[in-house]
Every structure is written in C-alpha cells, then in structure tokens.
Amino acid sequence: MATLTEQWDSIMGSVPSDWSSATLELELRDAAQSEEAALVLSPLNPWHERDWRSGVFRFRAAHTFGYGAAAGLCRKRLGTLDSLGVQGTLQRLSAVSDVRPVSTQGTT
Question: Alpha-carbon distance 108 to 101, whole Å?
Fold first, then answer.
C-alpha cells in the first residue's frame, strides 16, 4: 500500500496546475486508529459523514483561492500519519480550478 504522502503526491499530480481547492477523503485501514488520526488531522479541520470513529475523514485543501488548509500543511499532516504507521486510502472527491475572484462589493 502506498504511503499517504505518496497518495497525496499522486492526487496533486493529477489536478490542473491552476487548482484552487479540493475536497479529499481519507479512509483509515484500521478504524481503531481514528482517535490518533483525528488529533494529527485536527489542523485540517476534518469532518465526518458518519461517526468519527468510523475511520473516514474528509477535509479541504486550498492552493490559490478557496476554503481549506494550505496544501503544504495537508501533505505535512499526512506525513505525520505515515511516520506513526497509520495506513489508509486517500481519494480526491472534488477539485476546483481556474478560479478568478470577482469583486462584488464596494466601489470599482
């Protein structure tokens, strides 16, 4: 099984270079490691579709614009999980690219 940082690098290699934000899901191989993983991932503000002890964590990553933790921080936190021996499957659920913010308030 590929490490979480290897999976992250693969996912980031598959998104357009102008990606702005992405939603990802980490499913732990062993749900018994959920508490440890939750502590490590807490800076990413993860959420859960089910009970947090299910071993499934979702989080957002941001690259240029958009809501989410900085991409570098996401990779670092996944690396910490790797160093602790936590294994799992990381997948990209969605990604947004080619974002061009428009000013909608105030004077122009």
Answer: 14
Task: Choose among 99, 95, 98, 82: nearest CA to 37.
Answer: 82
Whole-model pTM: value is 0.86
Which pLDDT tens digit goes with each residue over 57-83? 999 999 877 789 999 999 999 999 999
Q: Give the residue from 71, 61, 57 showing the smallest Cα distance to 25.
A: 57
Domains in the chain: ranges and CATH = 4-96 (3.30.70)
For 56, the token pair is 């499934």
The pLDDT tens digits of the residues spanning 7-20 come to 999 999 998 888 88
Contact 99, 55 (CB under 8 A): no
What SS3 class is residue 73?
helix
Q: What is the dihedral of CA 57, 63, 67, 69, to 10 degrees?
A: 50
